[in-house]
Recover the amino acids of this structure.
């Protein structure tokens, strides 16, 4: 962990109290959304792979507080919190996890492939490293079209070991692309520690041979994250230059919902959750500065529970995508000799043994 | 109609599309200052400048990914991959990303991308520079794969591909670049993707092919006519979507079929076509479908071995005679 974890901001007096409360609310929303998502997975409401953002709430909320509407975000498969903190309502997100037609990707994507074009959330991607060149391409397009804004290429720590990452660093620098290479460093790529997988464990240094500036940031401190992201975002936009942010945080559970986390020492995990809980630590900080009180915490917790329950209810009440729409999004431009709704119905009948 | 080379048809089309739409840009290795490894982009950097004609480092995975990401924000990149062999290092971006983004995200974003690349091999290029991988991409739902055989189709399909909102693999052939043919000057002429063409009508046997093998098939058809065998040539033009109705209609008429492609025999394009024919025209066949495709080795360098490994006019004639027995 970063040594300066849990630093108390003496300048809280300069902060807008409502904004601070909003950060806490968002972090709690993420925390509870993911905990309830885990429950829904166990209840088999959610299938496939499912990766939770537990422990990364400050990293996500701090980033989103720094971004502007014109910015774009590409993430890996651990994406629920990013969409939620970007402002997408919880209902369509939960509905996507449930595989419903009302989901953010129309039930075609699932947990790892959330998307919200309107909010410039350009997708969760499930091939490690795959999203990184795409993000550089989006930044390339911004520059080409002479638009303002930056692009976030979010990834896990282990992604910094794959070739696509290095090609992306080179191209982003070479072509003056305003990209935030945003490394969520929770210390583990599945069960492989950073030390086991990376000859340079200081991930923020990995841009050195590309002349890309990097910084390590305490990803459990929402204000530290927000401030660093604001500063580096503005730098990237102003100078049309990529930067690396190495956001150090603690992964609360296994890699995915089905990972029993046997490779981490239970005492290490217990202590990590105790000491590096961004949600609880921020509540304590706000409490100490008399920005919130117990009644507010209780009311906020109730509100969050209600919102998430509504999201679950929405997902439960939503319809599955229609069988005849199986081929619906195959092509954006219509083309001859492609199957349609009737082919879908016929194929599915056979596959279901109904013929 | 003016007669121009396949290369010129491609070069003209790229220039015209750059002029027509400011969001069109070309990216690739050696396409600008060097003017293209096979001179397809000759003169375009000089005319349209470095913003529109972008020389890339040797980083196919990186710049193909950049092109996809840029396409998601509304640019229309046309990427040149020097030869199809080199796209293997970028295949994750094409197969796991370009082909899936529109569908997987519920139609919220489009990927108007063209990847142009020559496939197949001639001239002792050896094992790693002579391969045909268009079937790998044709296998993948979400992509469109076209492979023109003539300057006319090269122009019409490239224009269609650039104006299309989906990722299109545009398969060329080194051996076709210098071939000549009629190409209309009409600015709006396009060849539709997903539609095959009967390039020559005949009554005795249907030869189904695409790209360079269509050129071979046309020559062979002419020769067979002199022997009294009437060959119909179906040029697929698109491998995905595949125009099955045109194939089937032709085979139902001639009752015999030979499929020829340059790729390796097993699991290749010819297998797909032959399977389609037996599924949909079995009762019309007077003989088993014959397949002509590449010998299954890494392509050897030595001249005789190399030439002997690729399908040719000889192997096509052999197959036609066999199917006519």
């Amino acid at each position: 962990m970063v040594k300066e974890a849990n630093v108390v901001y003496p300048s809280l007096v300069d902060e807008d109290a409502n904004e601070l409360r909003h950060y806490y609310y968002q972090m709690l929303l993420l925390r509870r959304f993911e905990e309830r998502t885990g429950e829904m997975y166990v209840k088999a409401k959610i299938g496939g792979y499912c990766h939770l953002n537990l422990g990364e709430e400050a990293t996500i909320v701090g980033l989103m507080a720094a971004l502007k509407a014109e910015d774009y975000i590409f993430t890996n498969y651990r994406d629920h919190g990013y969409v939620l903190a970007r402002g997408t309502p919880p209902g369509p997100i939960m509905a996507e996890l449930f595989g419903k037609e009302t989901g953010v990707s129309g039930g075609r994507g699932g947990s790892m492939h959330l998307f919200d074009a309107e909010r410039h959330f350009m997708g969760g991607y499930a091939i490690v490293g795959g999203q990184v060149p795409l993000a550089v391409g989006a930044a390339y397009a911004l520059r080409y079209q002479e638009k303002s804004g930056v692009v976030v290429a979010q990834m896990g720590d282990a992604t910094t070991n794959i070739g696509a990452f290095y090609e992306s660093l080179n191209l982003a620098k070479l072509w003056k692309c305003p990209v935030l290479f945003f490394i969520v460093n929770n210390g583990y790529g599945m069960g492989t520690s950073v030390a086991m997988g990376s000859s340079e464990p200081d991930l923020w240094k990995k841009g050195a041979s590309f002349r890309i500036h990097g910084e390590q940031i305490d990803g459990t401190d929402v204000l530290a994250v927000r401030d660093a992201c604001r500063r580096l975002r503005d730098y990237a936009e102003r100078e049309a230059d990529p930067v690396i942010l190495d956001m150090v945080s603690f992964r609360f559970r296994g890699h995915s919902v089905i990972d029993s986390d046997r490779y981490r020492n239970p005492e290490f995990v217990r202590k990590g959750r105790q000491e590096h809980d961004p949600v609880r630590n921020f509540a304590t900080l706000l409490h100490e500065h008399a920005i919130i009180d117990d009644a507010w915490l209780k009311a906020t917790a109730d509100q969050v529970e209600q919102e998430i329950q509504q999201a679950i209810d929405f997902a439960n009440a939503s319809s599955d995508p229609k069988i005849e729409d199986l081929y619906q999004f195959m092509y954006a431009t219509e083309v001859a000799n492609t199957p349609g709704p009737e082919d879908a119905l016929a194929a599915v009948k056979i596959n279901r043994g109904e013929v | 109609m003016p007669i121009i080379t396949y290369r010129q048809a491609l070069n003209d089309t790229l220039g015209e599309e750059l002029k027509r739409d400011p969001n069109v840009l070309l990216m690739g290795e050696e396409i600008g200052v060097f003017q293209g490894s096979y001179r397809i982009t000759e003169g375009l950097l000089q005319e349209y400048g470095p913003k529109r004609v972008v020389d890339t480092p040797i980083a196919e995975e990186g710049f193909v990914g950049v092109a996809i990401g840029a396409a998601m924000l509304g640019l229309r990149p046309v990427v040149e991959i020097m030869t199809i062999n080199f796209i293997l290092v970028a295949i994750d971006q094409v197969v796991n990303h370009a082909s899936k983004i529109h569908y997987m995200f519920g139609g919220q974003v489009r990927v108007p991308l063209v990847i142009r690349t020559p496939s197949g091999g001639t001239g002792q290029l050896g094992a790693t520079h002579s391969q045909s991988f268009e079937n790998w991409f044709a296998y993948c739902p979400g992509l469109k794969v076209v492979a023109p055989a003539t300057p006319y189709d090269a122009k019409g399909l490239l224009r269609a591909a650039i104006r299309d909102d989906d990722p299109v693999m545009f398969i060329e052939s080194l051996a076709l670049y210098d071939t000549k043919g009629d190409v209309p000057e009409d600015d709006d002429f396009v060849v539709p993707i997903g539609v095959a063409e009967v390039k020559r009508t005949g009554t005795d046997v249907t030869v189904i092919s695409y790209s360079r093998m269509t050129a071979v098939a046309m020559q062979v058809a002419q020769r067979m006519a002199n022997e009294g065998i009437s060959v119909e040539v179906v040029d697929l033009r698109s491998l995905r979507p595949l125009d099955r109705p045109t194939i089937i209609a032709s085979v139902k008429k001639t009752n015999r079929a030979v499929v020829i492609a340059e790729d390796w025999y097993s699991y290749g394009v010819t297998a797909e076509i032959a399977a389609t024919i037996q599924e949909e025209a079995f009762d019309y066949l007077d003989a088993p479908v014959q397949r002509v495709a590449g010998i299954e080795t890494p392509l050897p360098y030595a001249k005789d071995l190399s030439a002997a490994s690729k399908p040719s006019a000889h192997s096509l004639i052999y197959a036609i005679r066999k199917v006519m027995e």
Observations:
- Residues 323-355 of chain A form one domain.
- Chain A has twelve helices and eight strands.
